[in-house]
Task: structure prediction
Amino acid sequence: MPQLIALLRGINVGRAKRIAMADLRALITGLGYANVRTLLNSGNVIFEGPSSKTGDQALRIQNAIAAKLGVSARVSVVTAADLAAIVRENPLQSIANDPSRFLAAFVSDRAVLTKIKPLIHQSWAPDQLTIGSRAACIWCANGIVESKLLQAFSGQMGEAITTRNWSTVLKLNAAASISSFAQPIQRQTSHHSGAGLLNRGNRIR
Result:
């Protein structure tokens, strides 16, 4: 089965919307997905699943999180192949020299990216925006807080987007690439969520 990545929006920031990564892995495993792993503590899940529409997969996971964990959080799902293409094709990497100021914005429905196309024709220098078929990328030259481009972008898209900084994007891409060749491991022995580490749940038999 193909590798997929689920990205949760706005969890474990402050005291609101808290989800333990062990609980998230157990939930997604319980939905029938295989070889479930999490990366960091911000709701990044790598797993194996059927090659059906990613939007349908995202909604299924989102509804399960709300029903079983009591947390309302937007979920976007991207295939490992699409994530690799985002990394490979992104034209801003040559100028984006600080991954904390360089964001990728993911959507569960690619069609909504058309909403922000008018922003491309406006001047935001020194910030820059690119819109691909799979995600948008935003370079905030003077920082995320100061970026008028990011403010306009977020205002247009609202909760339809889930952003990750470029450091996280690269870590997810590397983890998904390694997982494509790795053998499934046996039952997890530690229940620690392990922020900053790649954690595996149990593989469905």
